[in-house]
Amino acid sequence: MSLSSSDSTSRRRRTAEQAQDPSCVLDPHANCPHGEILDPPLDTRPPPGHHSSCPAAKCSSGQACVSRHVCEESWEEIKSKKTIKAENEVEANKLVNNYRFGFRKWKSHVTARPFEHRSDVVKELYSELNVVKPHSGPGQFVTCGNLAYVLLFGWWVSLVYFLVGILMFSTVIGVPYGRLCWKLCCYFLWPFGNTIHEIGNTLRRCSEDGPDYECSVETMEDSLPVLLPSATEGPAPEMPERPPRSPYWHRLSTYVWLLLGYPPLAIVHSLVCFVSWILVFTIPVSKMNAQTLSVILLLPPEDVLLSTSSHRTNQGYETRALLCCYYAANWYYYKYTVDGINVFAVNLLPLVIVALVIGYVDKENKYASSDVKFATAICSIIPLSYYIGMGIASISAQSNFAVGAVVNATFGSITELTFYITALLRGHRAANPCLQEVVKAALTGTLLGCILFIPGICMIIGGLKHSEQRFSSRCTGVSSALLFISVGGVFAPTLFSKAYGNLVCDACTNSTGGNSTSNASGPFVCHNCHYDLKNGTLFRDHIQPLVYTVSALLPAAYIIGLIFTLKTHSHIYNIHVEGQETSHHGTVVHWSRWRSLLILIVATVLMSACADLATEHIQPILSQPNISQYFIGVTVIAMVPEIPEIVNGIQFALQNNISLSLEVGSCIAVQVCMLQIPILVFFNAFCDVGFVLLFSDQHMWASISSVILVNYIFMDGKSDYFQGTALVVVYLILLALYYFAPSPAGC
After folding, report:
1. Is 678 a residue whose pLDDT tops 70?
2. CA distances from 293 to 115, 270, 286, 299, 608 (A)
């Protein structure tokens, strides 16, 4: 989701203005300055006993407030009102969905935003490198990014051009291309502020040689004043005729160039394109090299003109700017998107192909070890999770709430379920009970991360920028109540087994060194103590029916929560949408519903393959003697798939929308308990893979205490960086417990 926000200065100014104008606070529909989300200021709550500020419109029968209780209720209703500014109907749907229980919270836009409405910073990111801009002089281009370009790319690209130029001069026929290479050699050493033009009667040639090609007159007209005299200097001189020349494809030098000169330069520019694109912040370098490779190097050499920032020449011909780069790096490229997908997720997508190739082709680990294959497979889950999230958000935004809820419930947990089921199947086939314990540790780790770490890190980052943030405790209470129910239900069979199970210990000895059958007196020391459940009737007749009962009740509670928030009590979110500019039919959606569904299916299949590779090569990781298998489960396997959600939560917190940041973690935690675990239980009923809903004491008490702590912190409806620090510190303490804990018995 994308919520427009201003900086802290303008936000404080807006708050002060609202405090001076009571009507602005009391009437959410008044013409107040606000962004996409407007919550009333914190310091405008009416003092006790003050009744005149209570709006009459909020009182029953349209009459004035007569009691402090009624006035406070009206104020609470106004305070919880959220005004959302949406660019179109689809975005409004997505924004409203973000506040509803059962929908995954999504930051990015699902529709293409009008370019003219974007900020100047964002426009600069998407601008083409063929616009000549005014500048003060060469000195302004001496920046850290430009100097880094020279060190990383400029010197060796120029060296390659110099060598290719020598090669072309040696052929005699390719002398014009040799001159061009030496010109570009100087250009690519320091391209900033310099311009490459195409000269000649381009517009006429375009019309004559390619009648079916669309010639851009506006581009020509816009670029002409760069090198031609302005209107104030008198009429432009008449363009001289170009000397006759043979067509481009009828020259022998063209084929010499394409065979000898162009291939090495194509390799060099392709390599620079790839590296600079992967680095993200150097995307302008990638654009510059792509333009050179696809356009400039395929032009006749006499049509290429270079002009420096300090000396621009005009030979009297029509010109068109092809390439002019001013800065090699831009910090704001972390916002860059490709078809609605963030550039970082796009860059990680090839990792999926790498994981599949080395995983299924190199079966004998000749070229990559199991550790490398496991790391690659786990990291490839990150972009797939991002694409799945975008697909879910796109379908939900273009559908009604019922369809959106079904899609969220179906695909919202597909990432984790794919890994869990794959691990259970592989562990069952290999008779390896350790993978079952890893799955339980991953489930617990997801709970702890979503309950403690995600809200905590969002509170810290949001609190550092906005000091104190507020959220609606009533809206958060829905997820909190369901979280209490779900955690209690999940660990109910474990508590039941502790109460009624028989404790069995092996290798018991007394202080005198005798065995357990000895009559010697003294304390006994026992090892490998556990509850014996399967040798008796307790598990079969009591615990297993309880597990199935709980697994049926938890999804039912999830459905009731959906009905409560989407149908009967949707007013508790009190969301007002305004500022819609276009209808649904006039909106350009990045992904249509069918495309989103296709991407969801493909991403799920790829996720299954990557999860299979990860579980196949996880054993060397589990065999590390100094790291507990519990720790691997609660950290790497649990939190890597949630990285896109963590990023979404942090972005919400930076925009002073902490309520959504908190809902990110709660939504995932509730889905883990109410959907993922029951699905695993019923999957085990149809295909016995040994998954038993009995957790270790550490899992149980860590989860229960975390839920209690979070609900205590959420109680006052306020958050700051101190509360966030407390949550993160508790999470790190629990991770330390898992790190030093011994691995499960038999693993």
Report:
1. yes
2. 27, 8, 11, 10, 38
Q: How far apart are CA 606 and CA 11, in angstroms?
A: 44
Q: What are phi and psi of 510, to 5 degrees?
A: -95, 180
Q: Give the Å distances, CA to CA, from 714 to 156, 468, 469.
A: 57, 13, 12
Q: What are phi and psi of 67, to 5 degrees?
A: -145, 155
CB within 8 Å of 196: residues ≥ 6 apart: 187, 296, 304, 305, 306, 321, 322, 323, 324
Alpha-carbon span 342 to 71, nearest angstrom: 46
Q: Return the percentage of the chain with pLDDT > 70, whole number.
A: 75
Q: Contact at 8 Å (CB) between 18 and 24?
A: yes
Q: Is the pLDDT of residue 238 over 60?
A: no
Bridge-based pairing state of the strands 319-324 and 524-532: unpaired
Residues 6+ apart with CB under 8 A from 103: 97, 396, 404, 405, 408, 667
Report which of 195, 193, 183 is spatially closest to residue 143, judged by C-alpha positions: 193
Per-residue model confidence as pLDDT tens digits over 203-226: 444 444 444 444 443 444 344 333
More confident residue, 83 or 122: 122
- Alpha-carbon distance of 502 to 536, in angstroms, equals 9
Q: Nearest CA to 131 among 230, 224, 223, 225?
A: 223
The residues near 233 (Cβ < 8 Å, ≥ 6 apart) are none
Helices (H), 361-515: 370-379, 381-397, 401-411, 414-429, 434-448, 454-466, 473-490, 492-500
Residues 302 and 305: their CA atoms lie apart, in Å, by 8
Q: Show the tokens assigned to 295.
A: 């356009």
Helices 262-278 and 283-294: crossing angle, nearest 10°?
Answer: 160
Buried b (16+ CB within 10 A) or exposed e, 30-49: eebebbbbbbbbeebebeee
Measured between alpha carbons, how far is 662 from 462 in angstroms, rounded to an integer? Answer: 11
Question: Residue 10 has which token pair?
Answer: 């303008």
Q: Where are the beta strands (DSSP E) in 163-297?
A: 195-199
Enter the pTM of the model.
0.77
In whole angstroms, give the CA distance from residue 581 to residue 502: 67
Q: How far apart are CA 190 and CA 293, in angstroms?
A: 18
Kindly give, in sequence order, each residue whose CB lies less than 8 Å from that of residue 712, ignoring residues fewer than 6 positions away: none
* Kind plus residue range of the DSSP H or E element containing 593: helix 593-616
Q: For 656, which DSSP code?
A: T
Residue 53 reports pLDDT greater than 80:
no
pLDDT tens digits for 621-666? 888 777 888 899 999 899 988 898 899 999 999 988 888 888 888 8
Q: In whole angstroms, what is the distance from residue 85 CA to residue 31 CA?
A: 13
Q: What is the rounded distance in angstroms from the CA atom of residue 149 to the CA atom of residue 143?
A: 10
Cβ atoms of 608 and 419 within 8 Å: the answer is: no
Q: Is the pLDDT of residue 613 over 60?
A: yes
The mean pLDDT value of the chain amounts to 79
Structure tokens at 70: 């009624």
Please give the single-letter amino acid code of residue 18.
Answer: Q
Q: How does pLDDT run across 405-441, given as a tens digit for each residue?
A: 889 888 888 888 999 999 999 888 888 888 889 999 9
Domains of the chain: 118-199+252-309+318-335 (no CATH), 336-510+523-740 (1.20.1420.30)
- 417-438 burial: b if 16+ Cβ within 10 Å, else e: bbbbbbbbbbbbeeebebbbbb
Place of tokens 């390599």: 271
| Helix, strand, coil fractions of the chain, as percent rounded to 5 | 65, 5, 30
- Parallel/antiparallel/unpaired status of strands 82-85 and 37-38: antiparallel
* CA angle at 563 for the pair 77 and 69, rounded to the nearest 5°: 20
